[in-house]
Amino acid sequence: MDFYFQNPHPYPYHHPHNSVSMASSSPEIEALSDYLMLDDYVDHQDSRSSQSAESSEKATFRGVGPRIAFRTKSELDIMDDGYKWRKYGKKSVKSSPNLRNYYKCSSGGCGVKKRVERDRDDSSYVITTYEGVHNHESPFTTYYTPISFLHSDTFACTNPTLQTTN
DNA sequence: CGGGTTTGACCTGCGC
DNA sequence: GCGCAGGTCAAACCCG
C-alpha cells in the first residue's frame, strides 16, 4: 500500500462529541496524529510502508472512489464520524497482528466502505480507511451543518469529491 | 420485530 | 493448477 501523510486531514470529522480534527475534549481521543492519503497512482514514495507485507496488500481493495486513511490515537476502535456504519466482516491480516474490521455505510444506495484496524507498530493508534464518496449528507448534518468547518482554511477539503456539501 | 453484530464459508486475485 | 491472503456474504445471533 502506498500512502503518505498530510496535515490537516480534509475529511469531515465534525461530530461534536468525537471531534477528532479539533481540540479533543474526549479522554479517549488524545490527539489526532495523521491522516493518510491513499492513491492508486502514488507509487513514487514509500514513506512508511517499508515492509514487504504492506505492499502485499494489493488491489483487492481497489474500488469505486478515493481512499482516505486516518491514523488516530484512540482507545476506541470505531469513531463516530456522523455516518451510520454496518459491520460486515472481520479479518486477521498477515500484515498486522491486529484484526481488521470492515464497515459499509448503512444508508441505502450508498456504497461507501471503511476498514478499521490498529496500527501494527503502535496499537494505541487506529487506522481508519475510507473508500468511496457518500451520495448523501451525513445524518448528522441534518441538525449540524459544518459550513464554517468546510470553509475554513484549516480544514479545507483538498479533494472535491469528499466535500459533503454540494 | 427490526436493525446491527458475529463468524465461518465462500469468492477472487495473485504468485509460484 | 494450487495455495495463500484479503475481501465479502449471509445465516444465526443479539439487543433495544
TrEMBL record:
<feature type="domain" description="WRKY">
    <location>
        <begin position="74"/>
        <end position="139"/>
    </location>
</feature>
<keyword id="KW-0804">Transcription</keyword>
<dbReference type="GO" id="GO:0003700">
    <property type="term" value="F:DNA-binding transcription factor activity"/>
</dbReference>
<keyword id="KW-0238">DNA-binding</keyword>
<keyword id="KW-0539">Nucleus</keyword>
<dbReference type="InterPro" id="IPR044810">
    <property type="entry name" value="WRKY_plant"/>
</dbReference>
<dbReference type="GO" id="GO:0005634">
    <property type="term" value="C:nucleus"/>
</dbReference>
<dbReference type="InterPro" id="IPR003657">
    <property type="entry name" value="WRKY_dom"/>
</dbReference>
<protein>
    <recommendedName>
        <fullName>WRKY domain-containing protein</fullName>
    </recommendedName>
</protein>
<dbReference type="Pfam" id="PF03106">
    <property type="entry name" value="WRKY"/>
</dbReference>
<dbReference type="InterPro" id="IPR036576">
    <property type="entry name" value="WRKY_dom_sf"/>
</dbReference>
<dbReference type="GO" id="GO:0043565">
    <property type="term" value="F:sequence-specific DNA binding"/>
</dbReference>
<keyword id="KW-0805">Transcription regulation</keyword>
